[in-house]
TrEMBL record:
<dbReference type="Pfam" id="PF01636">
    <property type="entry name" value="APH"/>
</dbReference>
<protein>
    <submittedName>
        <fullName>Phosphotransferase</fullName>
    </submittedName>
</protein>
<dbReference type="InterPro" id="IPR011009">
    <property type="entry name" value="Kinase-like_dom_sf"/>
</dbReference>
<dbReference type="InterPro" id="IPR002575">
    <property type="entry name" value="Aminoglycoside_PTrfase"/>
</dbReference>
<dbReference type="GO" id="GO:0005737">
    <property type="term" value="C:cytoplasm"/>
</dbReference>
<dbReference type="GO" id="GO:0004305">
    <property type="term" value="F:ethanolamine kinase activity"/>
</dbReference>
<feature type="domain" description="Aminoglycoside phosphotransferase">
    <location>
        <begin position="21"/>
        <end position="220"/>
    </location>
</feature>
<dbReference type="GO" id="GO:0006646">
    <property type="term" value="P:phosphatidylethanolamine biosynthetic process"/>
</dbReference>
Amino acid sequence: MRPIDRVLGLKIWQGEVVADPLGGGITNVNFRVRDGRGSCVVRVGDDIPVHQIMRFNELAASRAAYLAGVSPQVLHHEPGLLVIDFIEGRTLTAADLCDWALDQALEMVIRTHRDIPRHLRGPSLTFWVFQVIRDYALTLTDGDSRHLEALPALMTQAQALEAAVGRIEMVFGHNDLLPANFLHDGARMWLVDWDYAGWGSPLFDLGGLAANAGLSQAQESVMLTRYFGQVDRDLMRRYAAMKAAAALREAMWSMVSEIHSELDFDYAAYTSANLLTYRAAYDAWTQT
């Protein structure tokens, strides 16, 4: 069944129903739906084992994020479909985060780590980026990826990064802090898309935010000082290692998507761009 047919076939609608595709998604197919009650977003997607996405976990995180005041309300769910309230606003860009939006985005990250666990119900997943990277390497090998020759060096580098990160504080993280996952309605920020949510290091969300937005060193210093209060050389080196790992995970996510995703998106170009981000972050870590 086509995604649009699944959406229109839901029994929750009242009155006339109009569904329009929402652009920008690179994991799920999303629609904005208007009916007699208002507007909502329907996310269409089953479990994606190659990306460790389990929809029970996304649902629990989405519900807790709403209760924590971070994300829109979940209105309905059933297998393969998640319906959430529509936020009238705009998605952010890397330029926004580097300009006026960083402080508000960081507040969303802090509230995620601090407040979501107070509302989280049932079992939840762990997100350890280095296990994700190892699993991606095996998936790429099984799929005869065009990136096979690069994998041995990348895995050696990932092992060094994992050792550098060392012991961690555990928080409940979003783990996919792309600029487009931040929304602004003109009055406040929202954080959406909880596909990869799970327990892990706060350094991953912070490093991912910095890598995906292209923050400057000065902005990173402000971000880390606000989050931790005090920053020393050891923390900076562990953070730099995790930032590089976050960029590598994004690149390898795209490599896997090249051979497994059916969405109309230029994953090859996305892989290339994120490999450049990773190499810059890895080189910066080696110099800390």
